[in-house]
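Hi again,

Forgot to attach this to my earlier email, sorry! This is the prediction with nicotinamide-adenine-dinucleotide bound. I've pasted everything inline since the attachment limit keeps bouncing my files.
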Amino acid sequence: MPVFHAGFDPASPPTRVRFECGARHGLARELDALALARALVLTTPQQRGQGEEIIGNRGDRAVGLFTNATMHTPVEVTQAALAEASRTGADCVIAIGGGSTIGLGKAIALRTDLPQIVLPTTYAGSEATPVLGQTENGVKTTLKSEKVQPEVIIYDAELVATLPVTMTVTSGLNAMAHAVEGLYSQDASRLSSALAMDGIRAFVAGLPGVVAEPGDLASREDTLFGAWLCGTVLAQVGMALHHKLCHTLGGTLNLPHAETHAIILPHATAYNEPCAPAALKPVAELLGSDSAAGGLYDFAERMGAPTALKSLGVAEEDLDRIADLASRSPYPNPRPIERDGIRHLLQGAWEGRRPVEEA
Ligand code: NAD
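Structure tokens for the complex follow:
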């Protein structure tokens, strides 16, 4: 790949990133470094306990706990959290959770400029990006702004160790999808491709250990490091067919985010592989397979991931509509988007078949 010929800018805003088991206990240091004293802690209802632990550690520097973070960042939830930030006089937010909770912190920062300290507990990678998706009146829109990029990311492997195994696997495949699409993105650079391959490698190394022993912190560290690498790729380059399909499926049929990514990844890869053979060859080699698509399918199946859209409740009759929608205003993609090819891809993903390269 020509390195500087086309020119590239990794666009890395100044974010402080810390990797350490138990780092959540040292949050006071991070607050001191930014001269912050009044944190509003954010979680989902399910992760209230992790928020309470943070508050216990923060003493009087935590002024409130908002536990209603919700998938796809509904604007009415953001408004309720903003009211709580204002009522408590918060000077920063601490988001502890996955993409939903981090999304809420970003939505607050967009409107208030409050600094964000985030402690990711899944592998979705939102913490590493200046991107925010929000939902209003059932319509999801996405924006990109440095205002939403968190100031501090704390990766504490003990926090992700509570993520149930099935979600661990699907969330890991969600992260790997950022990297796979990063490899053949039209904006791919030598840096983004190096990060992408190392991110995929970290999950291939770490996920089997987590599946065998969910509390194994060494494997959790591998996967959390992979999440940062893959999230950084997502921040640097544009995504393609795979993400378009997942956004269409998720938005139209209200499907769960990580599971949808896990199922679609091998099929979108098979569609693109004939037109991006050099970019995807290292993935096939890493997975010991004749193709990247086949290797990703086999890996996902070995990890116990769902492989069929029908298992998420998708009806076969919906596939025509999804193929139509996903073929409209496509993202830049190595292989031209042909509606019939996309319909065929969706059939394979619906049935859960191992994909074969489609030339
Ligand atoms: P999530 O944040 O919705 O979490 C899913 C569920 O798992 C929630 O109930 C949560 O409380 C629970 N959970 C999370 N971590 C846990 C843990 N360690 N232990 C126990 N339970 C835990 O899921 P997600 O897949 O991380 O995020 C999906 C959302 O993030 C979507 O809205 C997606 O659009 C967004 N996202 C945004 C970006 C971006 O760059 N803006 C990137 C990726 C994802």
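Strands lie at 16-19, 39-42, 62-66, 92-97, 116-120, 131-136, 139-144, 152-155. The domain at 165-351 is CATH 1.20.1090.10 (Dehydroquinate synthase-like, alpha domain).

That should be everything now.

G.
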